[in-house]
Write a structure and sequence with these properties.
It is built from eight helices and 20 strands. It is an alpha+beta fold and about 350 residues long. Among the domains are: about 55 residues; about 100 residues, L,D-transpeptidase catalytic domain-like. Helix 3 packs across helix 4.
Length: about 350
């Protein structure tokens, strides 16, 4: 499974909370010889109220704060002239953070943040280094009805839905099937939703790892996490994980894994019967206003894939080829950054 990340230390926020807690909450006021009794009582009452308010704020902070992780995926509006989600960001490494932790904090997978920052040590990127946050994505070239689209090549899931007449999409990084246990392509539906699932270990896995029991009960060591959605294929599920650093990697036996906080959100939003389309598209192209963007993801399973040729064909299909700078297109294919890149003429 490889080396896992070190636990993230959220120094800035934790220190702030601790500094609040470190205040001396004992009552203090001028000596009685220097102040009348009424002033002493008034000062004491004021201190009590201030300290009570401060303590309440600390308690609220403790309940609401989850270190390092966003509250939920952003909902993006999309359309024919709006096929690019988000924007590329920058991040300066602090303390002993690893790329695993930074990726999770910004809802990207390990594959994405590594591709966007070639040559950077994933375990020790270096304090003060500026990283590219690959938080801009081109929508897959697929039917965008309400439902889920999973692009195995980029290890990302898109959930299309409507809210108050608006067409919206949320997107999440995923872990997928390892070599020899590929996540299957096709059209499926969500047929079952399970809270705190048990893992019934397949015979093929027990043959590889005979120390495993027949059933792994719900809990922190269950690789399915706390939520699972079974697809109509039967043996493939969309579920959580007990190893978050596997998101953005080929680590499963065909299932689709999400960060624990992402599967919880998705699980509660996706109804039974939701359509699920699983595709493989290493290259994507689309518009953002009048600008042409492409996204190129290296898919190690498609060893003979013609990235440039397929991308040119896609641009022709969408009627965008004449609006493209050929040099920028070739650079995007060569670099395979895994995020949306503007390749318009006159950039």
């Amino acid at each position: 499974m490889g080396k896992g990340p070190r636990r993230k230390k959220s120094h800035n926020t934790i220190i702030s909370a601790c500094s609040l807690l470190s205040h001396n909450y004992s009552l203090s006021y001028p000596p009685s010889s220097a102040r009348p009794l009424t002033d002493i009582l008034s000062f004491t009452k004021m201190n009590i109220m201030k300290n009570a308010i401060r303590l309440i704020m600390i308690i609220i902070f403790a309940f609401l704060y989850v270190p390092g992780f966003a509250a939920g995926a952003e909902a993006f509006r999309y359309g024919e002239q709006n096929e690019v989600l988000g924007k590329v960001g920058r991040y300066t490494v602090s303390n002993d953070e690893s790329l695993y932790e930074i990726a999770r904090s910004y809802k990207t997978g390990f594959n994405e943040i590594v591709a966007a920052n070639p040559g950077v040590d994933p375990y020790v990127p270096g304090k003060g280094r500026t990283l590219i946050l690959p938080t801009a994505w081109v929508l897959p070239d697929s039917k965008r009805d309400d439902g889920i689209v999973i692009n195995v090549s980029e290890m990302r899931l898109y959930y299309f839905y409507r809210q108050r007449g608006r067409r919206l999409v949320k997107t999440y990084p995923i872990g997928i099937g390892d070599e020899g246990a590929d996540t299957p392509e096709g059209k499926f539906k969500v047929t079952e939703k399970i809270v705190h699932p048990a893992w019934y270990v397949p015979a093929s896995i027990r043959k590889e790892k005979p120390e495993l029991p027949e059933v792994v009960p719900p809990g922190p060591d269950n690789p399915m996490g706390d939520y699972a959605m079974r697809l109509s294929l039967g043996t493939v599920l969309i579920h959580g994980t007990d190893v978050p650093w596997g998101i953005g990697k080929r680590v499963s036996h065909g299932c689709i894994r999400l960060y624990p906080e992402d599967i919880e959100e998705l699980f509660h939003n996706v109804p039974l019967g939701t359509k699920v389309t699983i595709i493989k598209q290493p290259v994507k192209a689309g518009l953002s206003g009048d600008r042409v963007y492409v996204e190129v993801n290296e898919d190690i399973e498609q060893k003979t894939f013609d990235y440039l040729g397929e991308l040119q064909n896609l641009l022709k299909k969408k009627g965008l080829i004449d609006r493209v700078n050929p040099t920028s297109l070739e650079a995007a294919v060569r670099e395979k950054t895994g995020y949306a890149v503007d390749i318009s003429i006159n950039r």
